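Fold it.
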Amino acid sequence: MSVQAQKTKATDGDDEADAASTELTEDQIFHVLQNERRRNVLRYLQDTDEPVRMRDVAEQVAAWEHDTTVEALTSDQRQRVYIPLYQSHLPKLDTEGIIDYQQSRGIVERRSSAAQLEPYLDVGDDESDDRWDDYYIGATALAGLLLFGAVLELPVVSAISGTVIAGLVVLLYTSLTIGRFAEGRAA
């Protein structure tokens, strides 16, 4: 089915036919997602059900890329993102049937097939990763203190055998690994 036929079905409001007709292969998904700017566009559109202005998408993507707010963007920063989105990235997402991009009107709308990409966009929950990084740093510090205390034969640590210390370190890291694995499975 041609892209134009897919768009016609989508405009008729037949969401089930739209989703079925634009089933993306893994190769298509990875090709679309290989560019960070396209991933950012899709992240922006994740929580929208209504059409949005292309300018709003470009400004937010530029703000993310420059680690700033939309209000703090310079004209050059906006333009460096706007032009490639306008000429390349949004038409590519439209051609793949992931968004509906009305270039002449400057309107972008997420299509139902974009849901196929969401599992790939949500990889890397920064808050969770930062928390686990802190746990592993703490565990490493604790293991280092135990080892350092054993080498220096500090009174409290020297009372514990080397085998018990090694077992405690292994237990500590095993517990962290199981906890992180269980959290990942629950998500």
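The longest strand covers residues 99-102.
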